[in-house]
Design goal:
- Helix content is 29%, strand content 20%.
- It is built from nine helices and eleven strands.
- Strands 1, 2, 3, 4, 5, 8, 9, 10 and 11 form a nine-stranded mixed beta sheet that branches.
- The protein is globular and about 55 Å long.
């Protein structure tokens, strides 16, 4: 295995990470590499028949006691409801607190088993919120998010594979009925760059859309000593189905073992984080660090509307997805 990360020299005693309670700001877990679509822009590459195991979940939550924002990605998660039930079981066993949760889906497939598993997970997240533990000024208003990909690439591939817009809208309504309007979001981008990895490498030039290389070595993390027994680490950290720890997100499946900082099932946290760019940050500056990070990666409703305006409003009827539906 090739590891591009050299041990960082930033005057941090990494060995203490193995002895303290670890709290994370943002953690993405790639829970499956299965997918029913093959979108032209996908930076992941070709789908693989691989799901995360409970063993990998246990390795993660044995080391991490608190997660401010937990994101699940894929692959298409709805193909494997078991990755949700195993997640719940591991979280409960290790008593890991999750303050907010997000899951990304292409919206083409839905099953009662998947809905039931998500409802149980939502109950767990809401129970965690009763602890009222947060490092930031206030808790997010909504703590359970289902993000549905509705950009042109996904819609075109969906139709190509035989799914209909009526099918998508019906599934969206099912999500809203079960989780509430505020918990269902839509990912339709404006002025976004494609990650030049995976299937996107073969994508011909598109006017108004550029490709960006991965920059894993530039990802920075804040490191804060909260108490003598607790450390808080903020920044976008990803863990793949087999336990590879990656700085940032949006890695192709083939690059995971190249850009890994170590496997959480095999390495101590001191070994993994010693290869990442940790910046010591005081508690009072954590909000500033988070705001800067979120601002750099956020997409708001105005951007979404500009996207459709730039494309001749050809999907203007889908703008309602970002607002409350008519009662």
């Amino acid at each position: 295995m090739v590891n591009l990360f050299k041990r960082k020299k930033n005057n941090i005693n990494f060995e203490e990470l193995d002895k303290k309670n670890i709290m994370l700001g943002i953690l993405e877990i790639i829970v499956t590499k299965k997918c029913n679509l093959a979108c032209a822009h996908c930076m992941r590459g070709d789908a693989q028949n691989q799901d995360i195991t409970k063993e990998t979940y246990d390795a993660i939550f044995d080391k991490i006691q608190f997660i401010e924002n937990l994101n699940l990605g894929g692959g298409e998660i709805s193909l494997s409801p078991k990755v949700i039930t195993d997640l719940i079981a591991s979280l409960k066993e290790h008593k890991t607190i999750v303050n907010s949760f997000a899951l990304t889906t292409n919206g083409t497939i839905i099953s009662q088993e998947f809905i039931d598993a998500l409802l149980e997970l939502k109950e767990y997240v809401y129970k965690c919120r009763e602890e009222k533990i947060t490092i930031f000024k206030s808790l997010e208003k909504s703590q359970f998010h289902i993000v549905i990909s509705t950009d042109d690439f996904h819609l075109n591939e969906m139709i190509k594979k035989g799914y209909t817009l009526e099918n998508l809208l019906g599934n969206i309504q099912t999500y809203r009925q079960n989780f509430g309007d505020d918990s269902v979001e839509f990912k339709g981008y404006c002025d976004f760059d494609l990650i030049d990895e995976g299937r996107a490498k073969d994508l011909p030039p598109i006017q108004g859309i550029s490709k960006s290389p991965q920059h894993p070595l530039t990802q920075k993390f804040s490191y804060t000593n909260l108490t003598p027994k607790t450390n808080y680490i903020d920044g976008f950290l990803s863990i793949s189905t087999d336990g590879e720890v990656l700085p940032g997100c949006n890695y192709s499946f083939e690059n995971e073992k190249i850009f890994t900082a170590g496997n959480i099932k095999e390495k101590k946290l001191s070994e993994i984080f010693s290869h990442l760019d940790l910046i010591p940050v005081e508690i009072k500056d954590l909000n500033k660090f988070r705001h800067k990070m979120v601002k750099a990666s956020s997409v708001d409703e105005k951007s979404y509307k500009r996207y459709f305006k730039a494309n001749g409003n050809k999907k203007e009827r889908y703008l309602w997805m970002h607002s409350q539906p008519e009662k």
